[in-house]
Amino acid sequence: MEQTLLDILPAIDDKLVQFNLYLTAGFVGLTLGLIAFILLSRLRYGFRFTRRRRTEEDIQIFLTSYIFEDHTDEDALTAFASHYIQKRGHRQIVLENIVSLHKNLIGESADKLRHLYQQLGLQQYCKQKLYSGYWHEIAKGISELADMGINKYSELIRTFINHPHPTLRSEAQIALLKLKSDAPFSFLDDLKEPLLDWQQLQLARAAYKSHVLTIPNFERWLGSKEESIVIFCLRMISFYGQHSASDTILGLLQHPSAKVREEAIITLRQLETCDAVPMLTNMFANESTDIQLEILRTLPAISDRQSIPFFEQILGVENRRLQLAAARALCQSGQEGKSKVLAIKNNPEHALQQLAATALSYKV
Amino acid sequence: MITELMNQYISYTAVFFNHLVLVYALCISASYVVLATMSAIAMKQYKERNSFVDYRTILASQFSPSVSLIAPAYNESMTIVDNVRSLLALHYNNYEVIIVNDGSKDNTLALLIEAYELEKIDLLPDNQVKTKPIRGIYKAKNPAYHKLVVVDKENGGKADALNVGINVSSNKLIACIDVDCVLESDSLLKLVKPFMEEKTPVIATGGVIRIANSCVVEDGRLVKVEVPDKFIPRVQVLEYFRAFLMGRMAWAHVNGLLLISGAFGMFDKATVIKAGGYNHNTVGEDMELLVRMRRMLYEEKKPCKVAFIPDPLCWTEAPQTWDILKKQRNRWTRGTAETLLLHRKMILNKRYGILGLVSLPMWVLFEWLAPLIEFLGLLFFIILAILGYANWLYFFSFLGLVYSFAIMVSVFAILFEERSYQQYKRPGHMLKLVLTALLEPFLYHPVTVWAAVKGNYDLITGKKSWGEMTRAGFAQKKS
C-alpha cells in the first residue's frame, strides 16, 4: 500500500526534532566554550601584562646601567643574554625596549645601545624576520633595522618597495629614506606601485623627523610616468621651497592628468612663481571648476594689479563658485581690486551685491 | 470525508510551514556565520595594518585633507554648548565645525551666540543642493572659536539641515554627525585615513558607534565607560556589537556596505553633491544617500569603495524607554524599506555588482522581511495551536534551537569586543552583558519585531514622521 505524507509525517517530525536538539546542544556547548574562552583569555591577558611589565622593568634597569656605566660588566651581560635572549617572547621585549630607547638617544649612548643590539644577536634576529612568510613580520623587521640605523641590509629592504602589501611597501620606503643618507629618496627611481596619499604623508614626516641632510632636488622626478610620484615631488618642492624647479613645474601645467595640473598650480602659488600668470590665465577656460578655483586662488598671490581685468571678467560668468572666488581674488589684489568689490557691495542694484559682501567679510 | 481532507490539508500546510521556517532560520544563521567569519578576518587584517600607524602623521602634516564637520541641532539647548566645545577640541588640524540650527523652538541658537560670542556675517552659501531658506550665518568674534560656523535656518528636518551644512562647508571631506553624540578625540584622524590609503577612490567611511548611557561624560568628553544600568540600552550595546563589529566590518571587507550610520560618517563632498545630497522624503536618509551615491557611480562605471573602521569613534545615547525604542525601530524599518523600494531596480541586477547581487537581496530578506516573517510565523503557529494542530515537541525543539543560536551570536559579539577594543573592562561588565543576552530574545526582541511590523504598516499607510526622540542628555552624568 502506498504511503501518504500523513503516514510518514511523524517520522519526519521526529527527525526534525532530533536535528533541532542536536544543533541546540551544539550551540549551547559552543556558547559555554566561548564564555569560558573569554574568561580565560582575560585571565591570560592580565597575567601576561603583569609578567611583561616586570620583565620590562628588569630590562630597563639593565639597559640604563649598560648605557651609563663606563665599564661593561661582561658577566652581567652574559647572564642577561642567557636569560632574556634565548626565549623568543623575552627577546622581542628586549628588542622593542632597545629600539624605543635608541629612538630617543643620540651620540655615544645611541652608539653603545647599537653595539649591545649587535652583541646580543638582535640584528640577526631582525634580519631573519625579512625572510618571514608574513608581511607584518617583514615590516616589523624592516622598521626595527631602520630605527637602529643598520644599513647593511638596505639592498634586501629595497626588494620590498614594490611589494603588493601597501604597509610593507611603505615601511620599506621609510626605512630606505632613513638608511640611505647619501640618497634618501633614490627608491623613487624604482617605484612601480603608486605612492598613496597616506604613504606620501609618512615619507614627508619621516624625512622631516629623521633630519635628512641631503634633500634631493625633487625636480628630477617631475617627469615620472607615475602620477603619484609627480604629485609627491611637487609637494616636497613646495615644502622645501625648491624655487629652481619652477620652470619644470610650469611645463606640468600641460600635463594630461588634472590632478598633476592642480598640484602644480598649488606649488606655483607656494613658490610665488610670477612667471606663471600668463599661462594660468590662458589655460583657465579649458579647465574644470576645481582647477579654475585653484587658479583664482593662485593669481592674486603671484601677481599685483595685472590680473584685475581677468578677475572682473570672471565675475560675469554664470558660476557662483567662480564668481565668489574672483571677487575674493579682487579683494586680495590691492586697494584697486578691493575698491571694485566694495563698489559692488555698496550698490543695492547690483546682482552680485551679497556675493561681494561675502567676499569682503574678513570672517569667511 | 471533508474533515479528513481538511485535516490532511492543514497537516500538509503545517509541514510546509515547518520546513520553510527551518530553512529560513538556517539561512539567516548561515549568513551570520559567514559575516562573523569575514568580520574576524577583516578585524585581524585591520589590527595588523594599524600596528604600523602613527596618527600624529596626519595631525602634523600640511597635506592632510581638510574636513567640515556638520552637526544639525534641533531643540538641543540642554547639551549644545558642551557638545560644541567637545567638537571644537577634536585632534585635527584642518577642520571646521558647522552647527545647523534647524529652526529649534527652544533657545539653542541664543545659547550658542552667547557662549561662543557669535556675530552674524555675510556669507552666501554655495547652493549646490536645494534646501529650506537660511535665516543667518554666524561666526565667532573670539578667534579661539574660529573653527565654528553656526547656521540658523527654517525647520526642514535632519536631511535638509545636513544639506545646508554641505552648502556652507568649504572643505572636500564632510563628516556628518548627530550633535548629541560624544566623539573620541582622535575620531577625525581615524576616519580620514581610509580616504588616503586606497587605490580605489573612497567615497565614504564609517566607524563603530557605541552606547553612552550610564557612561560618565564631562564637558562633552567621555571619561568613564560603563555598561548601561537599564535593560533596554544594555541590550542595544549587544545589538551594536553585532551590527558594527560583526556585520558592517564584514560588508566593508567585500565592499558591499550599504549604510554609514547617521550618527557619524565621513563623505567625499563632491560625490555627495553630484548624487544630489540628502533626500528629504525618507526617514532613512543616511542609508538612502549611500545607496544613491554607489548606484550613481556604478552607473557611471566608476569604481569606488566604502570603508569601515572598527575603532570606537562615537558614543551615542540609546533609547531607554520602550516607547522611544519602538518609535526608533519603526523609523528604521520605514527608512530601510523606503530605500530598498526606491532602489529596487538594483536588487538582483548584476550591473550593480556585489551590491545588486548580494548586499541588497540580503537586506531585503534578512533585514526588512525578517521581522515580518517572524511575526507571520508566530501568528500561523497560534492559529495551528488553537485548531489543535500544533506539534508542541517540534515547537519547543525549534524554540530551543533559535534561542541557543541567538545567545551564541551575542556571546560571539562579546568576544569580538573583547578581542578588538575591550571597552568594557570589568568582569562584572561581561557578566551583565551575558545575562542580558539570555533575556534579550524573550523580553526585548518581541518589542522590536512588533515595532518593525508597525513600521511596515505605517509605511503602507503613508506615515512620514520621524517621531519625537526625547533624550535624557549626558549633562545629568556630569561628575
TrEMBL record, chain A:
Annotated transmembrane regions: 20-43
InterPro entries cross-referenced by the UniProt entry: ARM-like, ARM-type_fold
The organism's place on the tree of life at top rank: Bacteria
Keywords per UniProt: Membrane, Transmembrane, Transmembrane helix
Name assigned to this protein: HEAT repeat domain-containing protein
Species name: Pontibacter aydingkolensis
Organism lineage: Bacteria, Pseudomonadati, Bacteroidota, Cytophagia, Cytophagales
